[in-house]
Amino acid sequence: MHVRRIQVVIAALAVIGSTMVALPAARAMPPDPDLTVTSVTLGRASVAVSGLNMVPVPVTLKASYPPSSPPDAHKVLSVVLRRSGGVGPLNLIVAGDLVRTAGTAQNGTWTGKLNVPSTANGTFKVSGVVEFDSYTGDDGSKPGPTPFAGPSIAIRGVHIPKIGVSVVPRVVPFNAAYQVRAAIYDSATGKAYGTRILLQVVRGNLCAEYDAGSKYTNTAGLLVTNFAGAGGDINHCVRVRGRYVDTLAFHFYPLRPGIVSAAPVKTSAPVGEVVLVNGSVKGGYFPTPRPVTLQRLYGAVWRGVSASSVRQSGRITLTAQPPSVGSFTYRVYLPAFAYYQAGASKSFVIRGT
């Protein structure tokens, strides 16, 4: 593939991203009451990182557990750092698998390294310490981090990688197979890095699991993944995996069509009588009410006359009232919502008598 064509493809992927929807935050677990942190030392106060590289920074941790703890227990700890300044794709980094190199569990020293990616551009501050690498404890089986306000590190990321995504077709019909085209490229130049890079392009719970299976892009930074039609309404993601957290991730939902069908319970009624209009909307259920509007045709313009929301079952009910004697044309309009496109039912006529 020629360089010019690679740049055009990457630019297109960067622009044609599907709608991003925020994900719920993981539920944090209480800290370990037995862990007392004395100090955390970072080997560097600042670091510069370029592109896909990692720069190791030495980390020294001093901590203790109660006398009741076996001296040989708690051999591995991790230090959690959270963003305290600047802007970048990451808000959390982890110095994991720090090994106890001196003392015992009651009064020990743990050492290791923090591998800093360019996507951590900004300032990060030590916020806590946790055993092993369960930095949130959100699976409920382990305690969360023990809070500790430690030192900060200033990270200057340059040529930071960026992910672009396009979905083919752009609006995916229900139950139809589709394709996700992901690209990773240098955000400073808009060009590929010229090397094959491991990406995970997955959906559903695999967006949260550690090892969902990565595949290499081509040297243009492109990876094409095909998905079956079932499951198109769940979260999708493109991830660059790190040892403890993603070094870069892009979460999205494929766009879906707005499909609504509706009909009145009767096609004629006395003037002013309420006529129920029932119908259904195709697509997933949202905890936030999804609006729907009954519109009447005024000349060449559709105007709303009543409104409701889609029930959990996907069913809808609206009300029409013939304003005078004569025939009136109605339709149900479904506004764009989340990753669903706008849509409208077929029109129908209610006659006022």
Q: Keywords for this structure?
A:
353 residues; mainly beta; disordered N terminus
Cα distance, first to last residue?
69 Å
Strand percentage lies at over 45%
Q: How many strands, which pairing sense, and closed or not: the largest β-sheet?
A: 9 strands, mixed
Can you tell me the residue ranges where pLDDT is under 50 for at least 5 consecutive residues?
A: 1-12, 14-25
Average pLDDT taken over every residue: 89
Assign a percent range to the helix content.
under 10%
Quick summary of this structure?
The strands form five sheets. Strands 1, 2, 3, 4, 5, 6, 7, 8 and 9 form a nine-stranded mixed β-sheet that branches. It contains one helix and 25 strands.
Overall description:
There is one protein chain. The chain has one helix spanning 3-15, and strands at residues 36-42, 46-50, 54-64, 76-85, 92-104, 107-117, 122-131, 146-147, 152-158, 161-168, 178-186, 198-203, 215-216, 222-227, 236-240, 248-252, 260-264, 268-269, 275-281, 291-298, 301-309, 315-320, 326-334, 343-344, 348-352. It is mainly beta. The strands form five sheets. Strands 1, 2, 3, 4, 5, 6, 7, 8 and 9 form a nine-stranded mixed sheet that branches. Strands 18, 20, 21, 23, 24 and 25 form a six-stranded mixed sheet that branches. The longest helix has 13 residues, at 3-15. Residues 1-12 and 14-25 have low confidence and may be disordered.
